[in-house]
Design a protein that fits this description.
The complex is a heterodimer. Chain A is built from 13 helices and no strands. By secondary structure, chain A is mostly helical. Chain A has a domain of about 200 residues: MetI-like (MetI-like fold). By secondary structure, chain B is α/β, with parallel strands linked by helices. The chains are: A mainly alpha, B alpha/beta. At the A-B interface, α9 and α10 of A face α3 of B.
């Protein structure tokens, strides 16, 4: 056996040696770090624009050649036409302003009241223990299910939309601010009291600044929730607003107007989100995060 | 000495805590008499009630029995009478070093401008110049500890309590900080009560060292340190110093948690 094997092995070695001197059949395969080449920004943007134009183009072509039913899907040219009408002779600015105001008021009210409520739990452990189960219940209730009730109580004007938006944002802010309070280092309070501080001083100079990062962290979540609240409020009963425009257009089969309103709404959402993100980064700098 | 009462008099202070398993005796009657301007250290094993004594003196904890007298006046359970530096520096991350240091004065209602002015000269004199407007997160451990100590000093009380201020520092920084503290102490003439685990540190810095025992917390022995001042590093090599250190270590070893057969 050994005599037969040895020439065979020698043959293989001789065959391979001149061609691939380094390679060995039993060697581990060589792995390299995967390399990704980053495209320049213009290439990325061009591709993005291309995809958008492509979708719109396909949509328009499919609608004109009746591949899709233009009655249900509408088509870009009709949407563009409706958009111009909406902004010139239509209610665009009234609706935008209505939805914008409901959202902002609800956002401010919910965030401010919620944060204060959350911070207030610092004042008394008994009070916190008593109120906490109610807050948890409030959190688990789908607030949007209460919207019809809120509309009944607050009427069909701006107030009810603000109320729905507030209801959605309030609980989130409360729980987050309370989480901040719970994370407070008791030694920090000890330091303040050893310096002879009053409870109010500890609250103002320690609790509030300490919890600010928590409060700030929910701003972006809350602006989205406030907008949702405002739109749902408008869906249920309203005379103005982008939500009402969408509902009305849908009921009258004016699909182009549905698209227009959704488009405007998305733009509004993006602008508000960007503004809040900017505010957040500004505040973060202020609180040395 | 006899004509005026001691600066700080801890009069038979006891502390018991109720726990799930019964009553826990943290301190049996502890009496301390500290004259004005003294540097006094407490050393002892963990859980001997050093921090409990501090909390009682600072008024953050009501003793089960006994009194705390400052200048002969009952100060039991009143806050804001002594400067208290906790183990952690507890600098507020959203305030600059300067604004951290003035916290005590600010709470006492000193106008901000005046407080900042007073603090600025002090920061410059005591090794924090150039750091005034930086935020604590950018400071080294030693610098943070300096800021915390100056905050305690600027609170402007005659008595300051320092709870293991240098415990978390590396050996080199610790030595520097001890010199720095000696400088401050001789400049300000405060009455200092100092807690440490480090026997050598206690002897080197103090006029008097109280060795504490545990379960329940009590003072085993008070030792006057008669070594001349100003002290230098080599003081710790003198026979007297070594003798005191040996004595302290023996006391601490004897009071260490008992072995099972001795229990």
């Amino acid at each position: 056996m050994a005599v037969q094997d040895s020439p065979h092995v020698a043959d293989v070695a001789l065959d391979l040696a001149p061609a691939k001197p380094v390679t060995n059949t039993t060697a581990k395969p060589v792995h390299r770090l995967p390399v990704q080449i980053d495209w320049p920004t213009w290439a990325i943007v061009t591709t993005q624009a291309g995809i958008l134009v492509g979708i719109i183009g396909l949509w328009e072509a499919a609608a004109t050649t009746s591949v899709i039913d233009a009655f249900f899907w509408s088509q870009p040219s009709a949407i563009w036409h409706t958009l111009k009408i909406f902004f010139t002779t239509g209610d665009a600015w009234t609706d935008i302003s209505f939805t914008f105001r409901s959202t902002i008021f609800g956002f401010l009210l919910g965030t401010a009241a919620g944060s204060l409520l959350g911070l207030s739990f610092w004042w008394s452990r008994n009070y916190a223990a008593i109120v906490q189960p109610y807050i948890i219940c409030l959190e688990s209730i789908p607030k949007l299910a209460l919207a019809p009730l809120i509309i009944l109580v607050f009427g069909i004007g701006l107030g009810s939309k603000v109320a729905v938006a507030t209801a959605l944002t309030l609980v989130v802010s409360t729980l987050t601010a309370y989480a901040g309070v719970k994370a407070l280092d008791p030694d920090g309070e000890k330091l303040f009291y050893s310096l002879g501080a009053t409870r109010w001083q500890v609250f103002r100079k320690l609790v509030v600044p300490f919890c600010l990062p928590w409060i700030i962290s929910v701003l972006r979540v809350n602006i989205g929730l406030a907008l949702t609240g405002a739109i749902v409020g408008e869906f249920i009963a309203s005379q103005h607003g982008l939500g009402r425009a969408i509902l009305y257009a849908g009921q009258t089969y004016d699909i182009a107007l549905v698209w227009v309103a959704v488009l405007v709404l998305s733009t509004l959402a993006i602008i508000m989100y960007a503004a809040v993100s900017w505010l957040e980064s500004l505040l973060r700098k202020g609180t040395r995060q | 000495m006899l004509s005026s009462p001691p600066k700080l008099y801890v009069d038979n202070v006891c502390m018991t805590f109720k726990t799930a398993t019964g009553v826990f005796e943290a301190l049996v009657p502890v009496t301390l008499s500290i004259p004005s301007g003294r540097f006094v250290s407490l050393i002892g094993p963990s859980g001997c009630g050093k921090s409990t004594i501090f909390n009682i003196i600072a008024g953050l904890l009501e003793p089960t029995a006994g009194k705390v007298l400052i200048d002969g006046v009952d100060a039991t359970g009143t806050i804001g009478r002594v400067g208290y530096m906790l183990q952690k520096d507890l600098l507020l991350p959203w305030r600059s070093v300067l604004d951290n240091v003035i916290l005590g004065m600010e709470i006492q209602g000193v106008p901000l401008r005046e407080a900042r002015e007073r603090a600025l000269s002090l920061l410059q004199r005591y090794g924090l110049s150039g750091f005034e407007y930086l935020y604590p997160s950018t400071l080294s451990g030693g610098m943070r500890q300096r800021a915390a100590l100056l905050r305690t000093l600027l609170f402007d009380t005659d008595i300051i309590l320092l709870d293991e201020p240098f415990g978390a520092l590396d050996a080199q920084t610790k030595l520097q900080m001890q010199e720095w503290l000696m400088q401050l102490w001789s400049d300000f003439g405060k009455t200092v009560l100092f807690v440490t685990h480090d026997v050598e540190e206690a002897i080197y810095l103090s006029d008097e060292v109280h060795v504490m025992g545990t379960r329940p917390g009590c003072i085993l022995e008070s030792i006057l340190i008669m070594l001349p001042r100003p002290r230098v590093r080599t003081s710790s090599l003198t026979p007297e110093f070594i003798a005191i250190k040996e004595h302290c270590l023996n006391l601490l070893t004897a009071s260490a948690p008992a072995l099972p057969e001795a229990a």
